[in-house]
Amino acid sequence: MINLLLFPIIIPFLFAILLLFFKENVRMQRVLTLIGVVLSLVASFYLLITVKTDGVQAITLGSWPAPFGISMVSDMLSALLVTTTLLLTLFVVIYSFTSIGQERERFFYYPAILFMVTGVNGAFTTGDIFNMFVFFEVLLIASYLLIVLGGEKKQLRESIKYILVNVVSSALFVITVAFLYSVVGTLNMADISVKITEIGQPGIITLIAVLLLIVFGIKGSIFPLHFWLPGSYAAPPIPVLALFGALLTKVGVYAIMRTYTLFFTHNIGFTHEILMALSILTILIGCIGALAYFDLKQIIIYNIVIAVGVILFGAAQMNEAGISGAIFYLIHDMLIKGALFLLIGIIIYVTGTSNLRKMGGLMKTHAPLGWFFLIAAFGLAGIPPLSGFVGKLLIAQGAFQAGNVWGSIIMLASSLIVLLSVMRIFIYAFWGEPVELPKTNRKSYVRMMFPAIAMVVLSIFYGVGTEWLIPYMTDATDVLLDPSIYIDAVLKE
Amino acid sequence: MELLMAILIGVLFTAAVYLILSRSLLKIVIGTGLLSHGAHLLILTMGGLGGASPPVLAEGVTDFADPLPQALILTAIVISFGVTAFILVMAYRAYAVHKTDDMNQLKGNDEHD
C-alpha cells in the first residue's frame, strides 16, 4: 500500500470524471458524490493512522529515484489537512443537496467540487514545487467555475476580478519557480532545501523567499494582498463560499508555512520578520473590516482575513509552541469557518436578507439555530473549552518566548474584536423585536441544519479532545521544525 | 544572449502591467496574454540558453539543451491557454449581461450600506 497517500487525491478525481457522464441525473450525481467523498475520507483516516505509526510517507511517481521524479509526501501536517478538507467537503456537499438548487446541480456543480478537492489535497500532499503550481491551477480553475456558476450579474462582475488576480499571481508563481530553478537547479522540495542549505541562503534566495511570500500571500489573502477577497467571496452562493472560505486561503497559508520552514530557514531575521509584520497588519485590517460591515457575509469574510493573520503570526515564531499553535489554529479555523458559513447561510435563507439591520427576534422562532450559532461564535473567539482556545494560547506562548510581546498582545486583543463582530450578528439577528419572515420551507431548514450542527459538534469535540490530539500535533510540529525528517523521508539515503 | 532575453522579458512584463491597469476588459485580457508569454520565456531563459542540439536522444550528440524547462513551459502554456479561453468567454458573458467593458463601471456596492 505505498500508494495510500495518493488515494485522497485520486478518488475525488475519479468520481469527478465519472460524474461528467450523468449531467442531467441529479439524484445519481448526489449519490456518487457522497460515495466518492466518504471513500476518500476513509482513505485519508487510514493515511492519518499510517503516518502516525510509521512516520512520514513519501513516494516518487513512476519509481524514479527521488530528486528526478515527482515526489508526493504526506507528513502529519498534510495528512491532517487532507482529512479536515474531506470532512468539510462531506458536510458542505450534504448542505448543497438542499440549498444549491437544481439549475446549478445540472451544470457540473458536484464535479467542480470534486476537482477542487483534488487540487486542494494535491497541493497539501505534493513534494515538488512545480507540481504544487499545477495543483494550484487545478483547484483554481475548478474554483473559477464554482464562483461564476449560475451566471448572476454580481457573480460575473466579481469573478472577473477573482480570475484576473489569480492569473497574475499564477504568472508570478511561474516566474518565481523559474528564478528558483536557475539558482538551485532542482524542483523537488526536499532537494531544494538541501541545496539552499549548501549555499547558505545568499541574497537571491532571500529575494525568492519574498517573491514566494507575495505569490502565496495573494492566494492566502495577507495584507496588503487581501484586496480581492471581500468582493469575490461575497458573490457565490453559501455552500461555495463555505468551501472557499475554509479551504482556498488555507492552501496559501499551508504553502507559506511549508516553504518558510523547509526552504528559507537561514536568514529568518529578515524573512520571518517580514512575515510577522505582515501577519500583524493582516490581523488589524481584518479587525477593521469585521467591525465596519452590517452584512453577515462580509463580517465572516473579514474573520477569514483575521484568522490567516493569526496562523501566520504563529508560524513566523519558528519555535515549538508557535508552530504547533499555528497548526492547531489552522485546523480549528477550517472547521469553524465551515460551520459559521453554513449557519449564516441558514440565517440568510430564513430571513431572506444578509443585512443585519433588517433582522431581529429569530430566537423566538429558530432557537436551535441561535444556540448553535452562539457556540460557533464562542469557538471562533477562543473561549476556553471550545476549539479556538488552545491554538491561540500556544501562539501567544510562542510569541512571548520569542520576545514578540506587542505582536501577541495585538493578536490576543483581536480575539475581543472577533467576539464583538460575531456577537453583533447574534444580538441583531436573534434578539430584539421579531421582524416579518418571508415564507420558507420548514423541511429544508431542518435539512440544512443537520450538516451545520454536525460541523459545530465536530468543532466542540476538537476543542474538548485537545489532549487526545496533542500527539498528532506534536508529530506535525516536529517535521516542520526539523526539515531533516522530511528530507530523509523523501531522499531516502 | 541571456541579457538580451532578460531585457525582452522585462519589456513584455512592462507592457503586460500597463495593459492590465487599463480600463478596457479586452486590453486586460491581452495584458494577461503578454504576461504569460513573458513568464514562459523567463522559464526558458532561466533554464540556461546553452546546449547545441534539441533534447532528443540521437547518435553521437552529447551537448543537449536542458529538457526540464521545456516540459515546464509546455505545462504552463496549456494551463494559461485554458484559463485564457475561460476569461474570454466570461468577458463575453459579462459584456452581454452588464452592457459595458469598462472596468470602472463594473463595480457595485448595491447590497451593502
UniProtKB/TrEMBL annotation, chain B:
What Pfam families does the record tag this protein with? Oxidored_q2 (PF00420)
Under InterPro entries, the record lists: CPA3_antiporter_subunitC (IPR050601), NUOK/Mnh_C1-like (IPR039428)
Any one annotated GO CC term: plasma membrane
- Segments spanning the bilayer are 6-21, 28-51, 71-95
Subcellular locations according to the entry:
Cell membrane
Q: Which UniProt keywords apply?
A: Cell membrane, Membrane, Transmembrane, Transmembrane helix
Membrane topology per record: Multi-pass membrane protein
Q: Which family is this protein grouped under?
A: Belongs to the CPA3 antiporters (TC 2.A.63) subunit C family.
**Which PANTHER family did the record assign?**
ANTIPORTER SUBUNIT MNHC2-RELATED (PTHR34583:SF2)
Q: Any idea what this protein is called?
A: Na(+)/H(+) antiporter subunit C
- Write down the species: Sporosarcina luteola
> What is the primary gene name for this protein?
mrpC_1
